[in-house]
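Researcher: Next sequence.
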Amino acid sequence: MAAAASFTDRPGALEITRRLAEICGPPFARFAGPADEVAGRAARWVAVPGGPHAAAEVLRLAAAHQLTVVPRGAGTKIDWGAAPAQVDIMLDTGRLAGIWHEPQGSPVAEIGAGTPLRAVQATLDRTGQRLPVDAPSPGATLGGVLAADEAGPLRHRHGSPCAQLVGVRYLDAEGELVSLGAAGTALLGRAGPAGGRAAGGGAAGGGAAALFGAAQVPGLDVARLLCGSQGGLGVLVSATMRVQALPASRAWVTRPVWTPLEVHDLVRAVLAARLDPAAVELDLPVTVPLPRRRVHPDHPSVRHRPDHPSIARGSAGPAAAGSLVVLLEGGPADVAERVERLVALFGPEAVVGHAAPEWWGRYPFGPGETALRIEVPINDLHAAVYALRDAAGAPVPVRGSAGIGTVHAVLPGSLPPGRVASILAAVRGVLLARQGRCVVVAAPAPVRRVVDLWGELPTLPRLRAAKDHLDPHQRLAPGRLPGGL
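Model: Next structure:
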């Protein structure tokens, strides 16, 4: 941290610290500490604004001094993706929290970006509702989930969290507060720092349709572009999300599996049976523990994990078989009828439970490991898993949504970067012909520096156009997006 600390002696550093304290309050602005880093890149300051207008002031201060800003929620995915080129101000969204509008019986709710997802679900549960969102990161905030476009088992029926997005309020690189509907049209106009200046059109108000052409790129509007952008296109303040009634009944039906080909056949049978599953999840463990790099127990990426602080352990114990688990939701009689049909399809090895398996909604990887996300048409998922095994020279843990062809896999963090690169090249070569892709979600710093995290990305020119349009001076999380954007 010597290099990070040396900046405090530079002219203007103390003045910026004083201004951040004025904006956020003295307890909520400080010089960054050892745990305040993004994918290994140390921050200079940490600011925790108390509301949208204070956050806007932080961004305007950054713009005035040509400083970069990287948003942080709970920090559960702070090591995902590429390291930013520079982190001057880490903008912590922890005080941008709360369910701000929840009319009785309304199908939507506006939720502060810094609100922990668990708190949102607990609040909605009291009214018999939920968000159809179950991101695996323990302690994750809604803003962090959207910024990473992180989805759990319920994505099978409901899609990613961004599919539940109705509108957003976000801050652009100049500190302007913008309110948008999910179709990219301004809901409240383009609001200035006092919320009273309306200017129809503008960078966001004009909509991404003007930027990209709605006919050519359906769905690539500004609101949805913020999903998965890692804070590189705007700082999310709040999101208006769809809510739904809690299911009256839930059942998990488990079937042991041994091979990817067996999984392929079973998934096809489940989908052909029209059972309307809420989730179809696969867990294929390995029998050899994987070494894990020790991570500082106070690092935000591990602080909320169930296995904290024992992060340096190996993987969970050996397993004789994997599991294919189908979640059925609905009315009690309807669920019971579908469970009966699914048990008949799975055969005598099927087990019915009313609680999820221990591994349900958890990633197969931990801090310090190389985490991969494989996306492929479901008919080719088994080929992708076999290709990964062949390239790695041994089975690797695989877990995820087999019903839609999206799973995560893990490689030991001790693998040399060159070896990881060769595995990726082999797997991507197989996936290319199957309209699939393999993304490096997280990896140790030496691996991140060597490998191509994203692989071929046809939408990169459009993403570049969006970055140039929304953040032309590269102030927001520079380098976090594909292509070094």
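Model: Residues 72 and 466 are 21 Å apart (CA to CA). The radius of gyration is 23 Å.
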